Fold:
Amino acid sequence: MTELSNEVAARSRKIQATILQRFAQMKNANVALRAGVHEGTISRFNNERLESVAIILAAAGLQVVSADDQVISRRELRMLKEMSLKYLEADLAHDEIVDAQLKSAGCAIDE
Structure:
């Protein structure tokens, strides 16, 4: 087997940790019940297969997240940041206009 890249190895460890944390929260018996398998199957998976599965998922560029989580792409995150920046810039510009109007009306404002 070839050596893993640092990126794949790091992502693989994160995948393994995510899965093991969820199994610990739910208890192996509950995971087994929901999966329709014996609890020993879950234990064997954790001990014998999890590392390989995590490496394959990481190498394929996949990640594991809770069903409750929402994942957005880097592109979507970038767009969200850009929209937030535009809003904040407009909000600051509005504040400056209001401050100038208050000053011209002789009102004291906090700086």
